[in-house]
Design a protein that fits this description.
Layout (H helix, E strand, L loop, with lengths): L1 H17 L3 H7 L4 H29 L1 H20 L4 H15 L2 H11 L5 H28 L4 H22 L15 H9 L2 H32 L3 H49 L6 H28 L6 H29 L4 H20 L22 E2 L1 H9 L4 E5 L4 H4 L2 H10 E6 L6 H10 L2 E4 L7 H11 L6 E4 L2 H6 L6
Parallel strand pairs: 1-5, 2-3, 2-4, 4-5
Helix pairs in contact: 1-7, 1-8, 2-3, 3-4, 3-5, 3-6, 3-13, 4-5, 4-8, 6-7, 6-13, 7-11, 7-12, 10-11, 10-12, 10-13, 10-14, 11-12, 11-14, 13-14
């Protein structure tokens, strides 16, 4: 995870360095405002087109070779930028950078490989923190280099050097995270994307992610015009504002999300995130002072920082392990589409309706997202939640289904089992028996005949899954399991539909 964090951080650092410099380059080559906007959008366009492709290739050939290839490809694109002497060359370099930059979905898929279900969303938050820090430090470093007399070409070569150094280091220290490569039949790119998007809960979560990206990019493109009119801010003040947002997002995804998920789970964190996101967006145009605006920005950063990792983590948890790359690629592709359409549509509204209209439209999208969330909230995983409270009378927040148990087995995660049926190892489908003896450390027959303190100690080290024949737990069992689960380090679940969900599921037998 640390290696992936550094890899993504350095990549986003280079991206952040370039963003403030591109308008300068395009202006020097005679570009107007519209052409400069296209230069910025073409990068996201390539990500939209090619993120699913890179993700699908990583499912077939592994994460490591794709990440390394794209790191070196990014370096080459910055070298081309340094040697660009026309607007056409600038566009070619940025299109190439977007093509290789679409591999960020592969990093998300690698996180899916490395994290068990209970840690998945926290892992996505670490990647989000790398994004935030890259956007904070990148523009600052680029500005400092220019202020100390470096030419634009020298800055480009410095960024290329970062990418090449990152790639060379990756050759030696970046491991392959994909254990089982996909053997699925080839399908057309768009049919593969459509297949992901048509999955009931996954498709709606991807829609929420798209709306969030659309709303955020609309805000970013129009905020400078709004604060210039309202508070007479210059580009300097706006850059400080974006740096503040980046710091808040990095802190939210690096610290706050990791504390909230074990206590609340993805479902509640996503709900809080969407509400904060909506409050932040909707109050920007109501801000009577800079201090009120700072409060709005705090809610905005907190909202997007909570929403993105819980959404990405939930999508990953609901996706087959052999399709993680494709799912992450499709999700990032939709986010890129939001970054393409958001600024253009928001700018059109600002010109023809008024400067407040982009923020009102973005707030409306968040209302739709909240509505979608309420439609699917009961289907959103709670794998990040590891504790329960004495007030609970059932294990609703600790239940897993056969698909999540499948994830434990496919990812070779060691877990212990408490079963009410002495014959459980014998009557499990063949698929599970292949891994059973190597994975199960302890089987307690009956209702906690193994000493509770021994189970509690084991639960600190690895997940424990309770399997009843029909999934119905006795009150006594519930009470004892909850008592064990009061330990914040415990990780105790029960199989929702019991042994029947395993023996009756033909797809896993």
């Amino acid at each position: 995870m640390l290696i992936l964090f550094i890899t993504v951080f350095i990549y986003l650092l280079g991206f952040g360095i370039i963003i403030p410099i591109l308008p300068i380059l395009s202006r020097d080559f005679g570009a107007d405002a519209f052409q400069t906007g296209l230069l910025l959008s073409c990068y996201s366009l390539m990500q939209f087109l090619f993120s699913p492709m890179w993700g699908k290739l990583s499912d077939r050939f592994g994460r490591r070779p794709l990440l390394l290839l794209c790191l070196f490809g990014e370096g080459i694109s910055y070298v081309l930028l340094a040697y660009s002497h026309s607007l056409t060359a600038l566009f070619a370099a940025r299109l190439l950078a977007g093509f290789f930059g679409a591999s960020l979905s592969t990093a998300s898929a690698a996180v899916s490989d490395l994290t068990p279900p209970g840690e998945r969303s926290k892992g996505m938050a670490i990647i989000g923190a790398a994004f935030g820090l890259g956007f904070v430090f990148g523009p600052a470093i680029g500005g400092l280099m220019l202020s100390f007399g470096c030419s634009v070409a020298q800055v480009m070569f410095a960024v290329a050097g970062l990418c090449f150094a990152n790639g060379i280091a990756g050759i030696y220290i970046l491991p392959e995270t994909l254990k089982v490569k996909s053997a699925q039949k080839k399908a057309s790119r768009f049919s593969s994307i459509l297949g992901q998007f048509q999955k009931p809960t996954v498709g709606l979560l991807m829609t929420i992610f798209f709306f969030g990206s659309f709303a955020m990019s609309t805000m970013e493109a129009n905020l400078i015009f709004w604060v210039k009119e309202k508070f007479n801010w210059s580009f300097t003040e706006v850059s400080y504002g974006f740096a503040y947002i980046g710091i808040c997002i990095a802190m939210t995804q690096g610290l706050i999300v990791r504390k909230m998920l074990p206590k609340l789970g993805e479902r509640v964190v996503l709900r809080i995130g969407l509400l904060c996101f909506f409050i932040g967006l909707s109050t920007i145009v109501l801000a009577p002072s800079v201090y009120f605006l700072a409060l709005s920005m705090t809610f905005l950063a907190l909202g997007t920082g909570l929403t993105n990792p819980s959404t990405m983590g939930s999508i990953s948890l609901l996706t087959d392990p052999q399709e993680q790359g494709l799912a992450m690629g499709t999700t990032q592709s939709l986010a890129s589409l939001g970054r393409i359409l958001g600024p253009a549509f928001g700018g059109y509204l600002a010109i023809h309706i008024g400067l407040k209209s982009p923020f009102i439209m973005s707030s409306a999208l968040l209302i739709i997202s909240i509505f979608i969330y309420h439609l699917i909230q009961l289907k959103i995983p709670q794998s990040g939640k590891t504790t329960a409270t004495p007030a609970q009378t059932n294990l609703e927040l600790c239940k897993i289904d056969q698909f999540q148990l499948e994830n434990l087995i496919r990812n070779r995660i060691r877990f212990a089992c408490i079963t009410m049926d002495a014959e459980l190892p014998q009557i499990l489908p063949d698929y599970y028996q292949k891994f059973w003896q190597s994975l199960v450390q302890n089987i307690a027959k009956g209702e906690f005949k193994t000493a509770p303190e021994k189970i509690a100690e084991l639960a600190k080290q690895q997940p424990i899954v309770i399997v009843c024949p029909d999934g119905k737990l006795s009150k006594d069992l519930v009470k004892k399991a909850l008592a064990l689960n009061l330990n914040p380090q415990a990780n105790i679940f029960y199989l929702e539909k019991g042994l029947k969900s395993l023996t009756k599921n033909d797809s896993f037998s």
